[in-house]
């Protein structure tokens, strides 16, 4: 019930449209971080068929006390692949929570202008499936995979 309390104050209270088009734009760009937990690292490792429960140093980097997936030159996530005109995540079924919650990030939901700005590089935003307020808030506030 706590999710609905602030509904009247949220600019997106009537919902937002989003359907992934597999353009890969959310998996590339300027240098940044795709934060992963140790549990997510184990999940990805298993998906890739590794038996040690970890990722190669070409796929994972330590940033102070946290871990982030690495990037290829040009800013692409290490797991972004191109195939048949689509750019897609090669670990999609086990992608990290940060990736699962796109585009319903606080930064994108801070204002309609922020949403529209993000939509300029994401063709799936403002198109496709309508996500209602509760669905958006559930994704936005999700803490675990």
Overview of this protein structure:
The two termini are 21 Å apart. The chain has one domain. Helix content is 23%, strand content 19%. The protein is an alpha+beta fold. The chain has helices at residues 38-47, 97-100, 106-109, 112-119, 133-140; strands at residues 16-18, 35-36, 60-63, 66-69, 80-83, 86-89, 125-131. The protein is built from five helices and seven strands.
Order of helices and strands: EEHEEEEHHHEH
**Count of extended strands:** 7
- Determine the fraction of residues in helical runs and give it as a percent range: 10-25%
Radius of gyration: 16 Å
Main attributes of the structure:
single chain, 145 residues, alpha+beta, 3-stranded antiparallel beta sheet, two-stranded antiparallel ribbon, 5 helices
List the helices and strands and how they pair.
Elements lengths: L15 E3 L16 E2 L1 H10 L12 E4 L2 E4 L10 E4 L2 E4 L7 H4 L5 H4 L2 H8 L5 E7 L1 H8 L5
Please provide a brief summary of the model.
The protein is 23% helix and 19% strand.
